[in-house]
Design goal:
Elements (H helix, E strand, L loop, with lengths): L10 H29 L3 H27 L2 H22 L7 H29 L5 H27 L6 H20 L16 H14 L1 H31 L4 H24 L6 H18 L5 H29 L5 H30 L3 H22 L2
Length: 397
C-alpha cells in the first residue's frame, strides 16, 4: 500500500488483538482456577501449559515464512477461526468436572498455534496499513490496549466466579466469542497485500534460513533480538520472584501480591502513554538507556526487604519494560523490509518464547538460593545484556 493511502490509526487493527487478548487472559484465568479445583493439584495444569509452550515455540519456527509467503490478513482470519471452533467444540464435548488430559492438551495446542501465526502476521501488517511516521503512536496505543486487557481480565474473571452457574465451559464460550469478534474486526480491515508477498516461493526451511541471514546482516535488528532474548529470561525470573518474595517476607498475603501486580500493569500503561505523548523518533539507544535504569532499580531493590520499595519496583518494571517493548516493535517495523517482516518477527518471538521457559526453570532454583537477593541477579542480568550488545556493536564496526 502506497504511503499516501495509509492511515494514522486503524480501529479494526487495534480492536482485533485487544478482544483476543482479553478472551485469552480470561481463558487462562478460568483454566488455572477450574483445573486445579477439579484435580486438587497443579501438576496437570503445569504439564498442559508446558506442552503448549513447546507447541508455541514450534509454531514460531514455521509462522514467519508462511506469513511472508501468503496474505497476512488471511492468516489472521484462519488463526482466529481455528481457535474459535476449537473453543466451541471443546465447550460442547468436555466434561468440565473431570477434564480429560488429551482434550486440554489439544485445545491448548490449537490456541497456541493460532497465537504463533496470528501475532507475527498482525505485527507485520501494521506498517502496510499505518503511516510510517505514526507507527510509534499506533504501537503505543496498541500496547496500552493489551495492558488494559490484562488488567480487566482478572477483575472480570473474579466477578464471573461470584456467579454460581459459571464453570469452565462458560470461560470456553467467552473465549470463543472473543475469537469471533477478533475475526470480525480483522474481516473488515482494509488491507491490500503488497505484490512482494507473491515472490516468496522457496520452501519453508529455506525461507526461514533466508530470513535468519537477513537478521544476521541487519546488525541493529540482530542486537535488539539478542538483547530481548536476555531480557526474556529476566522477565521470567521477575514473574517467578514476586510471589516467592511476598510469600517469604510478607506472610503470603495475596492482597499484597495483587497490589504489586496492579502497579506493574499501571506502569505498563503509563509507559505506553509516555511514548504516545513523546514525539521523538524511537532509537535503539533509548531502549538501552531504559534498560540501564531498570537494571539499577533491580539492584537497589535487592538491597532492602521493604514492601514500599517492592511496590515502586513493580511500577518501574511495568513502565520501562512497556516502553522497551513498544519501541523495539516500532524500530523493527521501520528498519525491516516489508517482505521479511513475518520472518523477522517469527525469529524474534522464537528467541523470546524459548528463553522465557528457560528463565523460569533457572530462576526457580536461583530464587531458592538467593531469596530476596535474586533481585541483584536480575539487575546483573540486565546489565550483562547491555554489555553483550555493546561488545557486539564494537566488533561489527
Amino acid at each position: 500500500m502506497e504511503e499516501q493511502f495509509k492511515k494514522e490509526f486503524s480501529w479494526p487493527l487495534f480492536l482485533s488483538p485487544f478482544v483476543s487478548r482479553l478472551g485469552d487472559a480470561l481463558f487462562v484465568f478460568g483454566l488455572n482456577w477450574f483445573i486445579v479445583k477439579a484435580t486438587g493439584h497443579a501438576a496437570l495444569l503445569g504439564i498442559v501449559q508446558g506442552i503448549g509452550g513447546i507447541i508455541l515455540v514450534a509454531g514460531d519456527l514455521f509462522a514467519g515464512p508462511l506469513v511472508d509467503k501468503y496474505n497476512r490478513k488471511a492468516i489472521m482470519l484462519i488463526a482466529d477461526a481455528l481457535s474459535f471452533f476449537a473453543c466451541l467444540v471443546m465447550a460442547a464435548v468436555m466434561d468440565v468436572n473431570e477434564p480429560v488430559f488429551y482434550q486440554l492438551v489439544l485445545l491448548t495446542c490449537v490456541i497456541d498455534i493460532g497465537l504463533a501465526f496470528n501475532f507475527p502476521a498482525a505485527k507485520a501488517v501494521v506498517p502496510e496499513i499505518i503511516r510510517h511516521d505514526k507507527l510509534s503512536i499506533f504501537n503505543s496505543w496498541s500496547n496500552t490496549g493489551l495492558t488494559l486487557a490484562d488488567i480487566i481480565a482478572p477483575l472480570l474473571g473474579g466477578f464471573l466466579l461470584t456467579l454460581h452457574w459459571i464453570d469452565f465451559r462458560s470461560f470456553l464460550i467467552i473465549n470463543a466469542g472473543s475469537f469471533l469478534l477478533s475475526f470480525i474486526f480483522t474481516w473488515i480491515l482494509k488491507y491490500v497485500p503488497q505484490k512482494d508477498h507473491s515472490k516468496e516461493t522457496m520452501p519453508v526451511f529455506q525461507s526461514l534460513a533466508n530470513g535468519l541471514q537477513y537478521v544476521l546482516n541487519n546488525r541493529d535488528v540482530f542486537r535488539l533480538i539478542v538483547f530481548d532474548a536476555i531480557l526474556a529470561a529476566m522477565y521470567a525470573g521477575f514473574t517467578l520472584l514476586l510471589p516467592y518474595d511476598v510469600d517469604r517476607y510478607y506472610n503470603g498475603d495475596e492482597r499484597l501480591y495483587s497490589y504489586v501486580l496492579t502497579l506493574v500493569a499501571v506502569g505498563g500503561m503509563l509507559g505506553g502513554l509516555s511514548l504516545i505523548l513523546n514525539k521523538q523518533k524511537p532509537k535503539i539507544r533509548h531502549n538501552y538507556q531504559d534498560a540501564f535504569i531498570l537494571g539499577i532499580a533491580l539492584l537497589i531493590t535487592g538491597m532492602w526487604v521493604n514492601y514500599g520499595l517492592l511496590l515502586a519496583m513493580g511500577l518501574i518494571y511495568g513502565y520501562y519494560t512497556s516502553r522497551m517493548s513498544i519501541r523495539m516493535m516500532t524500530i523493527v517495523q521501520n528498519v525491516t523490509e516489508i517482505a521479511y517482516l513475518g520472518r523477522v518477527f517469527s525469529i524474534w518471538f522464537l528467541c523470546f518464547d524459548s528463553m522465557h521457559p528457560f528463565g523460569s526453570f533457572v530462576f526457580g532454583f536461583i530464587s531458592d538460593w538467593f531469596n530476596h537477593g535474586t533481585f541483584f541477579v536480575l539487575g546483573g542480568l540486565v546489565l550483562f545484556g547491555l554489555l553483550v550488545v555493546y561488545l557486539m556493536g564494537r566488533t561489527s564496526r
